[in-house]
Amino acid sequence: MLAEQPGTRDLIAFVARYMTCSACHHAYGADDVAVDRYSAGFWILSATCPACGQSRTFTAFDRPPYTQMPDMGMTNLQPLNDADVGEWAAFLAHFDGDLIELLGTVD
């Protein structure tokens, strides 16, 4: 059963404690959250607001999803430092183009 997967109760408790309805901002209770699917280390949960009935879907992973991506030759990249972040912030503050197109040109 989906609710019996290890970690599921913690995820439901997290949603109930930290997430709110996107429509009315009412808090969820544990009974308002359901596990719709569990597969290969990720969960799809849904929550229904007890106040307004609005439904919302959440996806949760047991590890960052990018660790499951194929190696694209970026394993030797150095971590960003404060100077890198500052340069990007300055660039993006004045960038008036298509970010998807820009990133598509990166080798």
Jot down its keywords:
2 domains; 107 residues; 20% strand; 3-stranded antiparallel sheet; alpha+beta
Structure description:
This protein is of the alpha+beta class and 107 residues long. The protein folds into two domains: 2-67, no CATH class; 72-104, no CATH class. The protein has three helices and three strands, in the order αβββαα. It has helices at 8-18, 82-94, 99-104; strands spanning 33-39, 42-48, 55-61. It is elongated and about 45 Å long. The model has no long low-confidence stretch (mean pLDDT 82).
Number of helices: 3
Return residue spans where pLDDT drops below 50 for at least 5 consecutive residues: none
- The radius of gyration over CA amounts to 20 Å
Overall geometry: elongated
SSE string, helix = H, strand = E?
Answer: HEEEHH
**What is the domain tally?**
2
- What is the β-strand count? 3
> What is the mean predicted local confidence, pLDDT?
82
Strand order of the largest sheet: 1-2-3
Range of helix content: 25-40%
**Approximate strand percentage:** 15-25%
Biggest sheet overview: 3 strands, antiparallel
Q: Give the end-to-end Cα distance, rounded to a whole number of Å.
A: 45 Å
The structural class is alpha+beta
Secondary-structure topology with pairs:
Layout: H1 8-18, E1 33-39, E2 42-48, E3 55-61, H2 82-94, H3 99-104
Antiparallel strand pairs: 1-2, 2-3
